Amino acid sequence: MKRQNRDRTVLVVDDNRDSRYLLRAMVEAQGHRVIEAGDGLKALELARQEHPFLILMDLYLPIMDGLEATRRLKKDPTLSDIPVVAITGLWGPEEALRAGCADYISKPVDSDALDQVLRALAIA
User: What pLDDT is recorded for position 7?
Assistant: First the structure.
């Protein structure tokens, strides 16, 4: 499935409910629809069902970490076009970029940093 500019769905993946809430608020303030997952496996399921325009992926997750989820997304030809932005305070950007992430934002997420990433990916 090809990404369409009119589809502004963003998948927010974080095991911390408060972090998901804050990311949701920041992304929705930009006019995007948000769907959420609390682990890497659920993120893969939602990505297949919804084909979001962007995935904001925490890397330290239960069941399947964000690095493995990103690797699997990038190996799937139907999902590989979805940009994944790593959101974490534990791993450095090198691991995230090697796994296939398009960019990296450190926690705690600053709204200006998120806005900059959204603009760079041309979805803001």
Answer: 66
Structure tokens at 87: 């959101």
Domains of the chain, each with CATH number or no CATH: 9-120 (3.40.50.2300)
Cα atoms found within 13 Å of the Cα of residue 87, Cβ hemisphere only? 26
User: pLDDT, tens digit, for every residue of 26-40?
Assistant: 999 988 999 999 999
Is the separation of the CB atoms in 65 and 59 below 8 Å?
yes
> Who's near 28: CB < 8 A, 6+ residues apart?
34
- What does the block give as tokens for 35? 């769907």
- Closest Cα partner for 99 from 83, 115, 113? 83
Q: Which residues pair with 54 in a beta bridge?
A: 10
